Amino acid sequence: MAVMRSIMYIPGNNPKMIAKAPEIPADIITLDLEDSVPPAEKETARQLVKENLKFAATGGAQVFVRINNWETELTNDDLEAIVWPGLDGVTLAKTGCADDVKRLEWKLEELELRRGIPVGTVKISMLLETAKGIVNAAECCVASKRNVNAIFGAVDYCRDMRVKLTSEAVEQNYARAHMAVCARMAGIVAIDAPFVAYQDIPAFEKNVADGKQMGYEGRMIIHPSQVEPSNRLYAPDPADVEWAKGVVKVFEEEGIAKGKAAVSFNGKMVDTPVYLNAKDILAAQAEIDAKNAK
């Protein structure tokens, strides 16, 4: 699975910001057709996004497009405009139920067939940002084989719940944890919500740490200043990588090779779950190293 530590959002109607996309070291660049684009600018944004799909990828990022949700009756026009070679995925805003995802899957296949794109090329990312979406998160996450991530949308979620959005994020705990579990159940990546106080990097870093303990592996980014800390914080800690190398070596040499179910490493027991956790850490680091080598 591709690295998704940072997903940078760029308004689809802003040519100056789109022009800077290749300079932003995010893992995914998402060109937006939804909230950052006013109604009168939707068509202009569609054309700009279509023209810049391949350009936005020249810095090494995958390119996604956030499309309007089905209830707006703008979704089909969005998809007709932007499903072309160079598009890696679409993010469906305000995903509410499995049928929203299945309908999108059908439309993507129809467009791929019509335009000579291999079926399955365009992946699906879901923004779960309403009470309905959170309640139905499990069914949404397993609704399509195209699904690669689910993004927790805290701003719209708090508005829907009629609660105040705070940097401490206590009001988000249930929904945030629930969505992460559902994503893990489905085998897709849980992406944490945008952190709106973008100038407060210490608070951002604390919020990232809290989310990582819930299972989040990346972040929706709304300002370029958050990309570097996001890439750093969602990568394995160097000390954990060294620990993992030692665990794998000792368990394979002293455990598996000698028929033992548990061995000792640095004064602690290492059994199969610990060994598998260590292998996961090394695999994540290998993905990041491969991306950085391109």
Tell me what the structure shows.
This protein is of the alpha/beta class and 294 residues long. It has two domains: 6-233, TIM Barrel, CATH 3.20.20.60; 238-293. Helices cover 47% and strands 17% of the residues. It contains twelve helices and ten strands. It has helices at 15-19, 42-56, 75-82, 98-115, 131-135, 137-141, 154-161, 173-186, 201-212, 227-233, 238-255, 272-293; strands spanning 6-11, 28-32, 62-67, 89-92, 123-128, 147-152, 189-192, 218-221, 262-265, 268-271. The strands form two sheets. Strands 1-2-3-4-5-6-7-8 form an eight-stranded parallel barrel, surrounded by six helices. A two-stranded antiparallel sheet has the order 9-10. Helix 11 packs across helix 12 (272-293). The chain is globular. The model has no long low-confidence stretch (mean pLDDT 95).
